[in-house]
Every structure is written in structure tokens, then in C-alpha cells.
Amino acid sequence: MQKESKWKSSDEISVLFLDDDQEKIELFEMAISQWQKYINLKITLYYSKRELSSRKNVIRVSFNEKEGRNYSAIGTGFNDGFFVKKRLNIAEVKENKIKFYQTSLHEFGHALGLLHEHQHPNAYDGVSDDQLKKICSMMYFIDVNDEHELGRCLYNIAPLEHNKKKYSISEYDVYSVMHYENAARKSEFPEPKHAMGLSLEDKTFIANEYPKEQPLDNEEIELMHNQDREEDLRWILETYQSENCKLERVDDKLYLTKVSYEKSKTVRIPSFSHLDSWFDACKRATSN
Ligand SMILES: [Zn+2]
């Protein structure tokens, strides 16, 4: 959490949707409501500029696919910039619902003041500028000769200093929604496989940063966390169904079955982040 960008507990925050794609708005609202359960900020949603009562503390949300980039200002950074207003953009397509939802959780985390978890001071063993450059080139396909591109990549992946004045820092959490899935990390940590939604540490941390009048204790947070996961799973099982593609849950594992006249075929889905592409492939495959 970047301390200077943190909202005040009494702040009223407006989320203004600049685009009116209903399906995208619904997915984004799901993401907001997951964060909202754990914090005491008062967030009001607006669907047109005319309804806005204040020009301050406005998180402006666009769904511009053409920009090809997901991003957000950090917390109160939304109040900076007079001529060019700061925005949060989701460039994902709505067909990839899980990806859209996860990205919305991540970008809204930035809007709450959170920085990247893979830039946590403990995330790297020590990494040289050359190694970082290589990561930008190999993992993110950045043209490292383009100063602007390289700068933006380094800004998003280079480790931050241990500075308690500037940042409030959680335990390093490889499961955080603020962690890039393919970012470099110490070998001792597991591969960051995102469960659906926010990690337990994401919730504990944000509840601590924006405590409710009756602060949530760890036990309550854990209970709420388990409920969230059940809800998310129920949503997935309802959403990822079509005439010829059936998603089922057996003992906490997900199986996708392609139903056809000849014979059915079932595959196990290794993680939530794979579901969009598997489901898409299943639907597109001809049934004979
Ligand atoms: Zn980010």
C-alpha cells in the first residue's frame, strides 16, 4: 500500500462507469463488492457523469479493448491531473469472464492504493538491472530498446525498497491478486496460482488498512473468505455451461465435459485461469 495514496476512512468515493456495456459492468461490480466487504470506504456507483455529485474522489472506469492494456491510477492519484483525468481501464474481452473478473479485482486493488505484490521487497533474492531487462524482454515481449516501453515495464516489475514511511507492507503473499502470475519470484515460493478472487492475505491486509468501526478479526475474515470462495465457485458452475459443454465439481476439482452423440469427453481443469480458454475450445469443437 502506497501511504500517500491511501484514501481517508471518511472519504466518499464515486465509481463512474464511462462505458455502458452491461455485462462488463456486472463483472466489475462483482469485483468491487468483494473488496467492499472488507473495508469501510463508502463507495457509490454512477453510470453517467450527470449524476455525479462531486468531482473529487472519482474512480473513472473505462472498458476500452483497443487500448490493449489494463491499468489504474493508485488510490488518491485519481484526484491528480487536471486536463487529462486519471482512469482505470479494463481491456479484457467479456467472453473471458474469469479473466475479466480477476483483472477487475487487480485494477480496483490499485484504485484502493495497493501496489504490485511481485514488487514486494521480499519477492526477489536480489535481481540486477540486466536481469530485470531480460524479464521484460522474454516474459513480456517488451522492446527493451524503446525507452518508454522499458520504463513502463520496469515500473511494473522492479522490486520496491523496504521503506516503512512510504509503504505499509504485508507478508509477501504469492497468492495475492496483486501478484502477476508469471512474475519472477524466489525459488522457495510456490508458483502463483490464483484461486478465484482475493487471497486471504489480500483481505486481512485491506481490512487492516481501512478498518471498519467494528474491526473484523482474523477468524471472521477467514469465515467470510470461505463463503466468498463457495459463492465464486457457484457462480462459475452456473456461468460456464452450454448445451454441449458441462462443467462439474467433484471433490473440489473441476471437470469439463464435451457432450456429443458418439461419446463424451471429460477433462480436468487445472486452474481457474485456464477455464476461459478450455471452455471456449470446448464450445468451438464440432460435436461429431
Ligand atoms: Zn497492476
Kindly describe this structure:
The protein has about 290 residues and is of the alpha/beta class. It folds into two domains: about 5-125 and about 160-230, Collagenase (Catalytic Domain) (3-Layer(aba) Sandwich); about 240-285, no CATH class. The chain is about 35% helix and about 15% strand. The protein is built from seven helices and eight strands, in the order E-H-E-E-E-E-H-H-H-H-H-E-E-E-H. It has helices at about 20-35, 95-110, 130-140, 145-155, 200-210, 220-240, 270-285; strands spanning about 10-15, 40-45, 60, 70, 90, 245-250, 255-260, 265-270. The strands form two sheets. The protein has a five-stranded mixed β-sheet, with helices on one face. Helix 1 crosses helix 2. The longest helix has 22 residues, at about 220-240. It is globular. The mean pLDDT is about 85. Zinc ion binds near residues 106 and 110.
Write the layout of secondary structure elements.
Blueprint: E1 12-17, H1 22-36, E2 42-46, E3 58-62, E4 71-72, E5 88-89, H2 97-111, H3 129-139, H4 147-157, H5 200-209, H6 218-239, E6 245-250, E7 253-258, E8 265-269, H7 272-284
Parallel strand pairs: 1-2, 1-3, 3-5
Antiparallel strand pairs: 4-5, 6-7, 7-8
The chain binds zinc ion (ZN).
Outline type: globular
Strand order across the biggest sheet? 2-1-3-5-4
Number of strand elements: 8
CATH architecture of the largest domain: 3-Layer(aba) Sandwich
Q: And the CATH topology of the largest domain?
A: Collagenase (Catalytic Domain)
List the domain count as a whole number: 2
User: Which homologous superfamily in CATH is the superfamily of the largest domain?
Assistant: Collagenase (Catalytic Domain)
Q: Which molecules are bound in this entry?
A: zinc ion
What characterizes the major β-sheet? 5 strands, mixed
Radius of gyration: 20 Å
Q: How big a fraction of the residues is strand?
A: 5-15%
Please estimate the helix content.
Answer: 25-40%
Number of helices: 7
Question: Quick check: average pLDDT?
Answer: 87
Compressed to H and E, one letter per element, the order equals: EHEEEEHHHHHEEEH
Global structural class: alpha/beta
Cα distance, first to last residue? 53 Å
CATH class of the largest domain: Alpha Beta
Question: Uncertain runs with pLDDT below 50, 5 residues or more?
Answer: none
